[in-house]
Amino acid sequence: MTSLQLTISEEKELIEQLQHSATQKKAFERVVKTYSEPLYWQIRRMVPSHSDADDILQNTFLKAWTHLEQFRAESKISTWLYRIAYNESVTFLKKNKNNMTPSDDIDRLAGQLEGDAYFDGNEMQAHLQAAVASLPPKQRMIFNLKYYDEMKYSQISDVLGTTIGTLKASYHQAVKKIKLHLEKLE
Amino acid sequence: MGIEEELKQMVGTDNPFKTPEGYFENLSSQVMSKLPEKKTNVIHISRWQSIKPWAYMAAMFVGAALMIQLGRGVFTPNTVTQSESDLFAFDSNELVLDDIISDQDIDSSLNDSFMGDYSLYELVASD
Predict the structure, then answer these.
(1) How far is A95 from chain B (nearest CA, A)?
(2) What CATH number is attached to the domain comprising A175?
(3) Contact between chains at B11 and A126 (C-beta distance less than 8 A)
(4) What's the domain range around A162?
(5) A182: chain B residues, CB-CB within 8 Å
(6) DSSP track, A128-150
(7) In a designed cystine with A110, which of A66, A126, A128, B74 is the match (CB 3.0 to 4.6 A)?
Protein backbone atom coordinates (compact mmCIF):
# COMPACT_ATOMS: atom_id res chain seq x y z
CA MET A 1 0.00 0.00 0.00
CA THR A 2 2.95 2.30 0.63
CA SER A 3 3.58 2.64 -3.11
CA LEU A 4 -0.06 3.65 -3.53
CA GLN A 5 0.18 6.66 -1.28
CA LEU A 6 0.15 10.16 -2.66
CA THR A 7 0.62 13.15 -0.41
CA ILE A 8 -2.60 14.79 0.79
CA SER A 9 -2.07 17.81 -1.48
CA GLU A 10 -1.26 15.59 -4.49
CA GLU A 11 -4.37 13.51 -3.91
CA LYS A 12 -6.51 16.65 -3.51
CA GLU A 13 -5.08 18.18 -6.68
CA LEU A 14 -5.62 14.94 -8.61
CA ILE A 15 -9.22 14.64 -7.43
CA GLU A 16 -9.92 18.23 -8.50
CA GLN A 17 -8.45 17.56 -11.92
CA LEU A 18 -10.51 14.38 -12.25
CA GLN A 19 -13.70 16.33 -11.61
CA HIS A 20 -13.20 18.83 -14.44
CA SER A 21 -13.77 17.67 -17.99
CA ALA A 22 -10.89 19.79 -19.33
CA THR A 23 -8.28 18.13 -17.08
CA GLN A 24 -10.00 14.79 -16.55
CA LYS A 25 -8.20 12.68 -19.12
CA LYS A 26 -4.72 13.87 -18.23
CA ALA A 27 -5.43 13.34 -14.54
CA PHE A 28 -6.76 9.86 -15.23
CA GLU A 29 -3.58 9.03 -17.11
CA ARG A 30 -1.70 9.98 -13.96
CA VAL A 31 -3.99 7.69 -11.97
CA VAL A 32 -3.26 4.82 -14.36
CA LYS A 33 0.50 5.44 -14.19
CA THR A 34 0.46 5.65 -10.39
CA TYR A 35 -1.77 2.72 -9.58
CA SER A 36 -1.48 0.23 -12.43
CA GLU A 37 1.43 -1.72 -10.99
CA PRO A 38 0.21 -2.23 -7.40
CA LEU A 39 -3.29 -2.97 -8.71
CA TYR A 40 -1.90 -5.50 -11.18
CA TRP A 41 -0.10 -7.41 -8.43
CA GLN A 42 -3.18 -7.37 -6.26
CA ILE A 43 -5.26 -8.80 -9.09
CA ARG A 44 -2.54 -11.26 -10.07
CA ARG A 45 -2.59 -12.76 -6.59
CA MET A 46 -6.35 -13.22 -6.95
CA VAL A 47 -6.09 -14.85 -10.41
CA PRO A 48 -2.65 -16.38 -10.89
CA SER A 49 -2.69 -16.19 -14.73
CA HIS A 50 -1.03 -13.12 -16.26
CA SER A 51 -3.48 -12.78 -19.17
CA ASP A 52 -6.49 -12.98 -16.82
CA ALA A 53 -4.92 -10.41 -14.48
CA ASP A 54 -4.23 -8.14 -17.45
CA ASP A 55 -7.87 -8.37 -18.62
CA ILE A 56 -9.18 -7.63 -15.14
CA LEU A 57 -6.82 -4.68 -14.74
CA GLN A 58 -7.96 -3.18 -18.06
CA ASN A 59 -11.59 -3.65 -16.99
CA THR A 60 -10.84 -2.06 -13.63
CA PHE A 61 -9.54 1.12 -15.25
CA LEU A 62 -12.33 1.10 -17.83
CA LYS A 63 -14.91 0.88 -15.07
CA ALA A 64 -13.16 3.59 -13.05
CA TRP A 65 -13.18 5.86 -16.10
CA THR A 66 -16.83 5.29 -16.98
CA HIS A 67 -17.92 5.75 -13.35
CA LEU A 68 -15.60 8.65 -12.61
CA GLU A 69 -18.52 11.02 -11.98
CA GLN A 70 -19.70 8.73 -9.18
CA PHE A 71 -16.40 9.02 -7.32
CA ARG A 72 -17.22 11.53 -4.59
CA ALA A 73 -13.79 11.57 -2.96
CA GLU A 74 -15.25 10.15 0.25
CA SER A 75 -12.45 7.61 0.14
CA LYS A 76 -8.94 7.70 -1.29
CA ILE A 77 -8.49 7.09 -5.00
CA SER A 78 -6.45 3.97 -4.17
CA THR A 79 -9.22 2.56 -1.95
CA TRP A 80 -11.79 3.20 -4.68
CA LEU A 81 -9.60 1.47 -7.28
CA TYR A 82 -8.87 -1.48 -4.99
CA ARG A 83 -12.60 -1.90 -4.49
CA ILE A 84 -13.27 -1.90 -8.22
CA ALA A 85 -10.38 -4.32 -8.80
CA TYR A 86 -11.72 -6.63 -6.11
CA ASN A 87 -15.23 -6.57 -7.58
CA GLU A 88 -13.88 -7.21 -11.06
CA SER A 89 -11.79 -10.12 -9.79
CA VAL A 90 -14.77 -11.67 -8.00
CA THR A 91 -16.92 -11.26 -11.13
CA PHE A 92 -14.21 -12.99 -13.15
CA LEU A 93 -13.87 -15.82 -10.63
CA LYS A 94 -17.63 -16.37 -10.59
CA LYS A 95 -17.74 -16.51 -14.39
CA ASN A 96 -14.80 -18.90 -14.55
CA LYS A 97 -15.53 -21.26 -11.73
CA ASN A 98 -12.67 -23.55 -12.76
CA ASN A 99 -10.38 -20.88 -11.28
CA MET A 100 -11.84 -21.59 -7.85
CA THR A 101 -9.44 -24.21 -6.55
CA PRO A 102 -10.96 -26.81 -4.25
CA SER A 103 -8.82 -27.61 -1.24
CA ASP A 104 -7.82 -31.05 -2.55
CA ASP A 105 -6.69 -29.50 -5.85
CA ILE A 106 -3.97 -27.35 -4.29
CA ASP A 107 -1.16 -29.75 -5.25
CA ARG A 108 -2.30 -29.86 -8.87
CA LEU A 109 -2.46 -26.05 -9.10
CA ALA A 110 0.95 -25.73 -7.43
CA GLY A 111 2.36 -28.00 -10.14
CA GLN A 112 0.71 -25.89 -12.84
CA LEU A 113 2.15 -22.71 -11.37
CA GLU A 114 5.66 -24.12 -11.28
CA GLY A 115 5.39 -24.77 -15.01
CA ASP A 116 3.98 -21.30 -15.78
CA ALA A 117 6.31 -19.06 -17.81
CA TYR A 118 5.37 -16.08 -15.66
CA PHE A 119 5.96 -17.77 -12.31
CA ASP A 120 9.37 -17.31 -10.80
CA GLY A 121 8.96 -18.83 -7.35
CA ASN A 122 10.07 -22.07 -5.70
CA GLU A 123 7.95 -25.10 -4.77
CA MET A 124 7.00 -23.64 -1.41
CA GLN A 125 5.86 -20.39 -2.97
CA ALA A 126 3.87 -22.28 -5.60
CA HIS A 127 2.09 -24.17 -2.84
CA LEU A 128 1.49 -20.96 -0.94
CA GLN A 129 -0.15 -19.40 -4.00
CA ALA A 130 -2.16 -22.54 -4.70
CA ALA A 131 -3.33 -22.62 -1.07
CA VAL A 132 -4.30 -18.93 -1.31
CA ALA A 133 -6.25 -19.72 -4.50
CA SER A 134 -8.24 -22.33 -2.57
CA LEU A 135 -9.61 -19.65 -0.23
CA PRO A 136 -12.97 -17.94 -0.91
CA PRO A 137 -12.42 -14.70 -2.92
CA LYS A 138 -12.97 -12.32 -0.01
CA GLN A 139 -10.67 -14.23 2.31
CA ARG A 140 -8.12 -14.41 -0.50
CA MET A 141 -8.21 -10.64 -0.86
CA ILE A 142 -7.94 -10.13 2.90
CA PHE A 143 -4.94 -12.45 3.05
CA ASN A 144 -3.16 -10.75 0.13
CA LEU A 145 -3.74 -7.21 1.38
CA LYS A 146 -2.51 -8.07 4.87
CA TYR A 147 0.24 -10.58 4.15
CA TYR A 148 1.88 -9.01 1.10
CA ASP A 149 0.86 -5.35 1.23
CA GLU A 150 0.81 -5.11 5.03
CA MET A 151 -2.29 -2.97 4.78
CA LYS A 152 -3.93 -1.88 8.03
CA TYR A 153 -7.22 -3.54 8.94
CA SER A 154 -8.95 -0.15 8.85
CA GLN A 155 -7.86 0.31 5.22
CA ILE A 156 -8.93 -3.22 4.28
CA SER A 157 -12.24 -2.47 5.95
CA ASP A 158 -12.67 0.58 3.68
CA VAL A 159 -11.94 -1.51 0.59
CA LEU A 160 -14.12 -4.50 1.41
CA GLY A 161 -16.76 -2.94 3.63
CA THR A 162 -16.19 -5.58 6.31
CA THR A 163 -15.79 -4.95 10.03
CA ILE A 164 -12.29 -5.06 11.50
CA GLY A 165 -13.24 -7.92 13.84
CA THR A 166 -14.43 -10.06 10.92
CA LEU A 167 -11.29 -9.20 8.95
CA LYS A 168 -9.02 -10.26 11.82
CA ALA A 169 -10.84 -13.54 12.24
CA SER A 170 -10.83 -14.22 8.52
CA TYR A 171 -7.11 -13.46 8.17
CA HIS A 172 -6.21 -15.63 11.13
CA GLN A 173 -8.18 -18.55 9.70
CA ALA A 174 -6.55 -18.10 6.29
CA VAL A 175 -3.03 -18.05 7.72
CA LYS A 176 -3.79 -21.13 9.81
CA LYS A 177 -5.19 -23.04 6.84
CA ILE A 178 -2.27 -22.13 4.55
CA LYS A 179 0.33 -22.95 7.20
CA LEU A 180 -1.29 -26.31 7.84
CA HIS A 181 -1.08 -27.14 4.15
CA LEU A 182 2.56 -26.05 3.87
CA GLU A 183 3.54 -28.02 6.97
CA LYS A 184 2.45 -31.18 5.16
CA LEU A 185 5.12 -30.53 2.55
CA GLU A 186 7.97 -30.30 5.00
CA MET B 1 5.98 -16.09 17.66
CA GLY B 2 2.63 -15.61 16.04
CA ILE B 3 1.26 -17.91 13.37
CA GLU B 4 1.68 -15.16 10.75
CA GLU B 5 5.35 -14.73 11.59
CA GLU B 6 5.86 -18.47 11.36
CA LEU B 7 4.35 -18.50 7.90
CA LYS B 8 6.48 -15.55 6.82
CA GLN B 9 9.59 -17.35 8.04
CA MET B 10 8.53 -20.48 6.23
CA VAL B 11 7.78 -18.97 2.80
CA GLY B 12 8.64 -15.28 2.95
CA THR B 13 6.67 -12.47 1.32
CA ASP B 14 8.52 -12.21 -1.98
CA ASN B 15 6.45 -11.90 -5.12
CA PRO B 16 6.82 -15.12 -7.08
CA PHE B 17 5.04 -13.83 -10.19
CA LYS B 18 6.52 -12.00 -13.15
CA THR B 19 5.17 -10.25 -16.21
CA PRO B 20 6.16 -10.19 -19.88
CA GLU B 21 9.08 -7.84 -20.48
CA GLY B 22 8.16 -4.17 -20.75
CA TYR B 23 4.59 -4.90 -19.65
CA PHE B 24 4.31 -1.97 -17.24
CA GLU B 25 6.04 0.43 -19.62
CA ASN B 26 3.30 0.09 -22.22
CA LEU B 27 0.46 -0.49 -19.81
CA SER B 28 -0.71 3.08 -19.24
CA SER B 29 -0.72 3.95 -22.97
CA GLN B 30 -2.56 0.68 -23.66
CA VAL B 31 -5.18 1.44 -21.00
CA MET B 32 -5.58 5.04 -22.14
CA SER B 33 -6.06 4.03 -25.79
CA LYS B 34 -8.95 1.75 -24.81
CA LEU B 35 -10.89 4.37 -22.87
CA PRO B 36 -14.05 5.57 -24.59
CA GLU B 37 -14.52 9.29 -25.15
CA LYS B 38 -16.72 10.88 -22.53
CA LYS B 39 -20.04 11.83 -24.03
CA THR B 40 -21.44 15.27 -23.44
CA ASN B 41 -24.51 15.00 -21.32
CA VAL B 42 -27.51 15.32 -23.64
CA ILE B 43 -30.75 15.91 -21.85
CA HIS B 44 -33.63 14.25 -23.66
CA ILE B 45 -36.78 16.31 -23.39
CA SER B 46 -40.05 14.57 -24.14
CA ARG B 47 -42.62 16.18 -26.41
CA TRP B 48 -44.86 16.88 -23.43
CA GLN B 49 -42.03 18.57 -21.54
CA SER B 50 -41.27 20.79 -24.52
CA ILE B 51 -44.88 21.95 -24.95
CA LYS B 52 -45.66 22.06 -21.23
CA PRO B 53 -45.00 25.82 -20.75
CA TRP B 54 -47.18 26.65 -23.74
CA ALA B 55 -49.93 24.33 -22.54
CA TYR B 56 -49.83 25.91 -19.11
CA MET B 57 -49.99 29.39 -20.63
CA ALA B 58 -52.95 28.42 -22.83
CA ALA B 59 -54.72 26.88 -19.85
CA MET B 60 -54.12 30.08 -17.91
CA PHE B 61 -55.74 32.19 -20.65
CA VAL B 62 -58.68 29.84 -20.92
CA GLY B 63 -59.08 29.95 -17.16
CA ALA B 64 -58.93 33.77 -17.15
CA ALA B 65 -61.53 33.95 -19.95
CA LEU B 66 -63.85 31.63 -18.04
CA MET B 67 -63.45 33.71 -14.89
CA ILE B 68 -64.33 36.87 -16.77
CA GLN B 69 -67.34 35.17 -18.32
CA LEU B 70 -68.43 33.90 -14.96
CA GLY B 71 -67.93 37.35 -13.39
CA ARG B 72 -70.18 38.93 -16.01
CA GLY B 73 -72.90 36.40 -15.28
CA VAL B 74 -72.80 37.14 -11.57
CA PHE B 75 -72.63 40.92 -11.64
CA THR B 76 -75.08 41.68 -14.52
CA PRO B 77 -78.66 41.96 -13.11
CA ASN B 78 -80.79 39.47 -14.92
CA THR B 79 -84.04 39.41 -12.95
CA VAL B 80 -86.25 38.30 -15.76
CA THR B 81 -86.62 34.61 -15.69
CA GLN B 82 -87.49 32.52 -18.67
CA SER B 83 -91.15 32.20 -17.70
CA GLU B 84 -91.44 35.93 -17.12
CA SER B 85 -89.91 36.74 -20.46
CA ASP B 86 -92.42 34.45 -22.06
CA LEU B 87 -95.17 36.80 -20.81
CA PHE B 88 -93.71 39.68 -22.77
CA ALA B 89 -93.05 37.73 -25.87
CA PHE B 90 -95.29 38.61 -28.77
CA ASP B 91 -95.54 37.75 -32.38
CA SER B 92 -95.10 40.91 -34.41
CA ASN B 93 -96.96 39.36 -37.35
CA GLU B 94 -100.12 39.11 -35.30
CA LEU B 95 -100.24 42.80 -34.39
CA VAL B 96 -101.11 45.65 -36.79
CA LEU B 97 -100.42 49.26 -35.71
CA ASP B 98 -104.09 50.24 -36.47
CA ASP B 99 -105.28 47.70 -33.98
CA ILE B 100 -103.37 49.42 -31.19
CA ILE B 101 -103.65 53.16 -31.99
CA SER B 102 -106.68 54.69 -33.72
CA ASP B 103 -106.70 57.95 -35.80
CA GLN B 104 -108.62 59.69 -33.07
CA ASP B 105 -105.96 58.88 -30.52
CA ILE B 106 -103.31 60.36 -32.82
CA ASP B 107 -105.26 63.65 -33.32
CA SER B 108 -105.87 64.11 -29.62
CA SER B 109 -102.20 63.43 -28.91
CA LEU B 110 -101.17 66.08 -31.41
CA ASN B 111 -103.56 68.60 -29.84
CA ASP B 112 -102.22 67.81 -26.36
CA SER B 113 -98.62 68.27 -27.47
CA PHE B 114 -99.02 72.06 -27.74
CA MET B 115 -97.33 72.01 -31.13
CA GLY B 116 -99.47 74.95 -32.36
CA ASP B 117 -99.05 77.03 -29.22
CA TYR B 118 -97.16 80.23 -30.29
CA SER B 119 -96.66 81.32 -26.69
CA LEU B 120 -94.25 78.40 -26.28
CA TYR B 121 -92.01 79.71 -29.06
CA GLU B 122 -92.01 83.16 -27.45
CA LEU B 123 -91.05 81.61 -24.12
CA VAL B 124 -88.13 79.74 -25.62
CA ALA B 125 -86.88 82.77 -27.62
CA SER B 126 -87.01 85.17 -24.67
CA ASP B 127 -83.93 85.83 -22.50
Answers:
(1) 23
(2) 1.10.10.10
(3) no
(4) 104-186
(5) 7, 10-11
(6) HHHHHHTS-HHHHHHHHHHHTT-
(7) A126
Average model confidence (pLDDT) for chain A?
90
In chain B, how long is the greatest CA-to-CA distance? Answer: 150
Whether the CB of A34 is below 8 Å from some CB of chain B: the reply is no
Give yes or no: residues A173 and A111 share one domain: yes
**Boundary residue ending a domain (A100, A116, A133):** A100
- Domain borders along chain B are 47-76+98-125
Residues of B in contact with A81 (CB under 8 A): none
Residue A23 CA to residue A29 CA, distance in Å, equals 10
Per-residue pLDDT reduced to its tens digit, A99-130: 556 666 888 889 989 999 999 999 999 999 99
Contacts of A46 (CB under 8 A, 6+ apart): A53, A56, A86, A89, A93, A137, A140, A141, A144
Q: Which residues of A touch B41 (CB under 8 A)?
A: none
Split into its structural domains, chain A has a count of: 2
Name which of A56, A116, A122 is nearest A84 in CA terms.
A56
Residues in A closer than 8 angstroms to B27, CB to CB, are 32, 36-37, 40, 57
Q: Please state the ipTM of this predicted complex.
A: 0.82
State the angle between helix axes of B3-11 and A137-147 in degrees (0 to 180), rounded to the nearest 10: 80
The verdict on A37 and A110 lying in the same domain is no
pLDDT of residue B21: 92
Q: Residue A105 gets which letter from DSSP?
A: G
How far apart CA B70 and CA B111 sit, in angstroms, is 52
**Considering chain A, what percentage of its residues have pLDDT values greater than 90?**
70
